[in-house]
Each structure stands twice: as structure tokens, then as C-alpha cells.
């Protein structure tokens, strides 16, 4: 008897330590996830009668709701512009801040600075800079002979405005690239230098192949975040003009909290969840082809990332 | 990488050009906040105000209960930070220093929650908190923090796994129990990462907009981020007071970052490296 209790005690210690997360996971993640799936089969207003409707929400979404396809298309378009643009800028900046020249630390801090600013503040600041009538951005453009559009009120430019404002927070991704670049052995560059390779050549033959796992990580996370983008569009354009920035996240949010169709919004959200899972799986699957794999060492890493 | 003199010059020009993109919006924010309303609305824009209106801040601040919003933001920031530090240190310790059945599955699950889209859980959470009677209170923003956050647990976990087993064995020989090993040996080891988590959490919570937007509807409960967004919504033609509050909103995270930039830039990247 005594031994049994002793054994039990040993087994329970780690569980006591991780219990906060387990309880939190059940209450704030698992239960809502399940609840959301159930709600998606109901006609579910905030107040009032909940009615089971089977697959009706999904059927409506795919066959009767034109806005669903429009929002989906706009969001994919945004991701298609924003993700490569952001990745390239982040990579360029990361390479730059990893070159050990005088004062480089200051630049490291400067490039990272905007990431600590609230989306609310970002939208106010950039909304003012990109203002069509008084905006300083168009004023600066006029110096080089460009007559800038009315960024936020022009349906074809509003999405670009979101990209410009969104890329202000590229610092997080830059920092992740920077870490990966810093971890590359200096000897490789020395050897390449002795062999007469140019800096550009070194970048494409050493840096880029060695950081592909990080590239993969950044690619996946930025696809996920850009498919869910909502704060900036909510505050900068509120989906306008003419619904040209009515992103999927905003569409789901409005269905739920403005139009009070919680069940329908859950169906929308689950659909996006599946897309994100699919894309993530696809990116990981394709990674075998292009991710540098040092004796399987990096493979483990891209799995855990 | 070796750079020639010409390359170095081009390099600095490029660095500076990029810096303008990241810095000028801050400068423009401050300059706008200090102008008169008439001067802000001129084109071509005047860069410096002819009279520096420092009283803009006071006027804007007093035009709405921003003091209350600030108090709410501070309550949430302090309580969530306490919650995250207590819960994440425990959970990370449990995962990093013990072997138990199902550990791998649970830890993978924990990492997966970081990828979860926000709106899949937000809508049912709204219903859940409604049942709890928490809507329009600060509880939905505070209580979950006491159950840990995947990213912070991950950061702590990375800092704990490399420590040799001898540490707890030596302590146990000295007669310390499991709990004492945690508080006396591992908490001090986790301290630098806990500081980092504290700063990251304060910045995240201070900036959060969607959480307050969904769960709060009464002005007396607004956080500063939500209050500022609401202020912007009704004062679309008054950029000066809006910018003044924006300055107030932006400064605390910048200060927090200033204190912790070494931790953040080196520490965070150290953890990502795993």
C-alpha cells in the first residue's frame, strides 16, 4: 500500500505542473473548437431560438453567398502580394543587419521598432500618411514626379495601401531570418571568399540554401497571418472602398458580431481553418524538394517549428 | 563578408533609406500631434508646426475618459503578466524536466495551438463567456492568461532543456522536495526568459484590439486601444487629437522595448534557434 502511494506521487508531479495548461486548453481551446463545429450546423443568433439546420450554412455559403467568394478571392489576392513582398523585404533587411559594420545594431533596433506598435496606432498613423488629400506620402511621391492615387478611397489601390502599412511590421520575420543567418558558420564564407566568390554568389550558394528551413517557417506563418488579417482592414478601410478590402476575416467577423449570424460565421471560420491546414500541409509536403537537409538535422526542425 | 569602400557607401545609403520607412511615420505622428488643426490640414504639408501646441495632449486626453481606459489597460497588463509568469513557468518546467506518458503528444498539441486561426475559437468563446457572465467585464482578457500561453511556454521550455540533470539530483540529495527544486533552482534559471515574457506580454496585451472589441461594450470597461479606435471612429475629421492619443498609445511599448531590446533581439532569436 505504501509503495503504491509512493509510485502514484511520482507519476503525478509533472501533471500537477502542466495542469494549468491542460485545464486552459480544455476550456479555452478544445471546448470552443468543438462548440464552434456544433454551432456551424445551427442557425444561431446571439439571443433567441437556436435551430438545427444540418449542412444548410455550408450550402448557403457555397451556393448562395456571392460575398463569400469575393472575400475569399480578395484575401487570397492579398496573401499572394503580401507574403512574397514581406518575405523578400525581411530577407534583405536580415542580410543587411547581419553584416558587421559600425552602427549596425542601431539599424537592427530601428527596423524592429514598428512591431511593438498596436494595430490601432499603425492604422491611424498610416491612414494619415496615405490620406489622399493631405497625405505626406503622395507629397513625397510628387518630388519624383509621381502623382499618387487616393490610396484608401481607390478600389484598386486600397489593397496596396494595406500591404504598405502591413509591411511596416516586417521586423519579427526579419529577426527570425537574422537568427538563422547568424548561425551559419563564418568558415563557409571565408572559403568562398578565398575561392573568389562574390558576395552575391555567396548569398545564393551559402546563405539561401542554409536558411531554407527558416524560410519555410516564415512562409507558413505569414500565409496563416495574412489569410486572417483583420485589424488593419477593420480600422484603415473598414472593408471599403466598394468592398475592395472586405477580407475574409472581416467577413467572418461581421457575420458573427454585426449580423448576429453566429452559426453561419462558425461555418465560415471552419472553412478557413481547413484551408489553412491544407496550405500548411502542402507547404510542408513540398518542402522535401527545396528545403536544405543536412543529414536529416533540419528536417526535425521544420517539423517542430 | 568583405565590402569594398564603394559597396560600404551603397550599403549605408540603403540602410538609411530603409530606416526612413521605419522611422518617419513615428516622426510624422509626433509632428502632427503638435500642430494646430488648421495647419495639419494643409497641402502641401508643412513639416514643422509654426507654433508647437503641447497642450494638444491635455485637450485630447480630457475629451474622453481616457484615464479610465488607461486604468483598465494597466489592470489587464499587470494581472495577465502575473498570470503568464506563474502558469508558463510551471507548465514549461513540467514539460522540460519530467518524462511521462503522453508528453510528446501533449507538447505537439501545445505547439499546434499557435497555428490556430483566431476566429475559429473567438465566436464560441464569446458564447462561452456569455454563459459565464463575463461579457463586458475584463475577465475574458485576464483569466485565460492564468492558464499559460503556448508561445511563452515554448520559449521557457527551450531555456530549460539544455540544463543537465545533475541540478535537480543534487538538490534532492540535499533534501529539497519537487516544489522546492522548482522554486529555488529552476525559477532563478528561468528569470531572464521570464523577464522577456513579461515585456512581450505587456506589449501584446497593451496593443490588443480584437479581444476588447469582441468582449467589451461599455465605455467604462474600454482599454486604451479600444478607446483610441472608438475615438478615431467619431473624430474622423480631427486628426490632431487622434494623433495626440496615438502618441500616448505608442510610447509605453516603445519604452518597454527600449528597456528590453537586448533581451528581445538576442534572447528571442536565441530561443527560436531552439
Give an overview of the whole structure.
The complex is a heterodimer of chains A (305) and B (274). Chain A is mostly helical and 305 residues long. Chain A has one domain: Orthogonal Bundle (MetI-like fold), CATH 1.10.3720. Chain A contains 15 helices and two strands. In chain A, strands 1-2 form a two-stranded antiparallel ribbon. In chain A, a hairpin with a 7-residue loop joins strand 1 and strand 2. In chain A, helix 7 crosses helix 12. The longest helix of chain A has 38 residues. The radius of gyration of chain B is 23 Å and the shape is globular. Chain B contains 13 helices and no strands. Chain B has 274 residues and is mainly α. Chain B folds into two domains: 53 residues, no CATH class; 208 residues, MetI-like fold. Chain B is 74% helix and 0% strand. Chains A and B meet through helix 1, helix 4, helix 5, helix 6 and helix 8 of A and helix 1, helix 4, helix 5, helix 6 and helix 10 of B. Chain A: It holds the Pfam family BPD_transp_1. Chain A: This is Lactose transport system permease protein LacF. Chain A: It is found in: Cell membrane.
Amino acid at each position: 500500500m505504501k509503495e503504491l502511494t509512493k509510485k502514484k506521487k511520482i507519476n503525478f508531479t509533472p501533471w500537477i505542473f502542466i495542469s494549468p495548461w491542460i485545464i486552459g486548453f480544455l476550456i479555452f481551446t478544445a471546448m470552443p473548437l468543438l462548440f464552434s463545429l456544433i454551432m456551424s450546423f445551427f442557425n444561431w443568433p446571439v439571443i433567441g431560438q437556436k435551430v438545427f439546420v444540418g449542412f444548410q450554412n455550408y450550402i448557403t455559403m457555397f451556393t448562395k453567398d456571392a460575398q463569400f467568394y469575393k472575400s475569399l478571392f480578395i484575401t487570397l489576392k492579398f496573401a499572394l502580394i503580401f507574403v512574397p513582398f514581406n518575405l523578400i523585404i525581411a530577407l534583405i533587411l536580415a542580410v543587411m543587419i547581419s553584416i558587421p559594420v559600425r552602427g549596425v545594431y542601431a539599424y537592427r533596433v530601428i527596423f524592429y521598432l514598428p512591431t511593438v506598435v498596436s494595430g490601432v496606432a499603425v492604422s491611424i498613423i498610416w491612414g494619415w500618411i496615405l490620406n489622399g488629400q493631405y497625405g505626406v506620402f503622395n507629397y513625397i511621391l510628387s518630388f519624383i514626379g509621381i502623382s499618387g492615387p487616393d490610396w484608401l478611397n481607390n478600389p484598386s489601390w486600397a489593397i496596396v495601401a494595406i500591404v504598405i502599412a502591413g509591411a511596416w511590421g516586417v521586423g519579427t520575420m526579419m529577426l527570425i531570418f537574422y537568427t538563422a543567418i547568424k548561425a551559419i558558420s563564418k568558415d563557409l564564407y571565408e572559403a568562398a571568399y578565398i575561392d573568389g566568390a562574390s558576395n552575391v554568389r555567396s548569398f545564393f550558394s551559402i546563405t539561401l540554401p542554409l536558411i531554407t528551413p527558416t524560410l519555410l517557417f516564415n512562409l507558413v506563418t505569414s500565409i496563416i497571418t495574412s489569410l486572417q488579417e483583420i485589424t488593419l482592414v477593420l480600422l484603415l478601410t473598414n472593408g471599403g472602398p466598394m468592398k475592395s478590402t472586405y477580407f475574409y476575416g472581416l467577413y467572418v467577423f461581421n457575420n458573427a458580431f454585426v449580423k448576429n449570424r453566429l452559426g453561419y460565421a462558425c461555418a465560415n471560420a471552419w472553412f478557413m481553418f481547413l484551408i489553412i491546414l491544407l496550405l500548411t500541409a502542402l507547404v510542408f509536403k513540398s518542402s522535401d524538394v527545396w528545403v536544405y537537409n543536412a543529414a536529416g538535422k533540419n528536417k526535425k526542425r521544420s517539423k517542430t517549428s | 563578408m568583405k565590402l569594398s569602400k564603394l559597396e560600404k557607401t551603397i550599403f549605408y545609403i540603403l540602410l538609411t533609406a530603409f530606416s526612413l520607412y521605419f522611422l518617419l511615420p513615428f516622426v510624422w505622428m509626433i509632428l502632427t500631434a503638435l500642430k494646430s488643426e488648421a495647419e495639419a490640414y494643409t497641402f502641401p504639408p508643412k513639416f514643422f508646426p509654426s507654433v508647437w501646441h503641447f497642450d494638444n495632449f491635455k485637450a485630447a486626453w480630457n475629451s474622453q475618459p481616457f484615464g479610465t481606459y488607461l486604468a483598465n489597460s494597466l489592470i489587464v497588463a499587470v494581472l495577465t503578466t502575473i498570470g503568464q509568469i506563474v502558469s508558463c513557468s510551471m507548465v514549461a518546467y513540467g514539460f522540460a524536466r519530467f518524462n511521462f506518458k503522453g508528453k510528446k503528444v501533449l507538447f505537439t498539441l501545445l505547439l499546434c495551438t499557435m497555428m490556430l486561426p483566431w476566429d475559429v475559437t473567438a465566436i464560441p468563446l464569446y458564447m462561452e463567456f456569455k454563459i459565464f457572465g463575463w461579457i463586458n467585464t475584463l475577465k475574458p482578457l485576464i483569466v485565460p492568461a492564468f492558464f499559460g500561453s503556448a508561445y511563452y511556454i515554448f520559449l521557457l521550455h527551450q531555456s530549460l532543456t539544455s540544463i543537465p540533470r545533475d541540478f535537480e539530483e543534487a538538490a534532492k540529495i540535499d533534501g529539497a522536495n519537487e516544489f522546492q527544486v522548482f522554486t529555488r533552482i529552476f525559477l532563478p534559471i528561468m528569470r531572464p526568459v521570464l523577464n522577456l515574457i513579461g515585456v512581450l506580454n505587456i506589449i501584446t496585451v497593451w496593443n490588443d484590439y480584437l479581444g476588447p472589441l469582441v468582449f467589451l461594450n461599455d465605455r467604462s470597461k474600454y482599454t486604451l486601444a479600444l478607446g483610441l479606435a472608438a475615438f478615431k471612429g467619431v473624430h474622423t475629421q480631427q486628426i490632431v487629437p487622434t494623433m495626440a492619443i496615438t502618441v500616448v498609445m505608442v510610447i509605453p511599448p516603445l519604452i518597454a522595448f527600449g528597456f528590453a531590446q537586448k533581451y528581445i533581439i538576442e534572447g528571442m532569436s536565441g530561443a527560436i534557434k531552439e
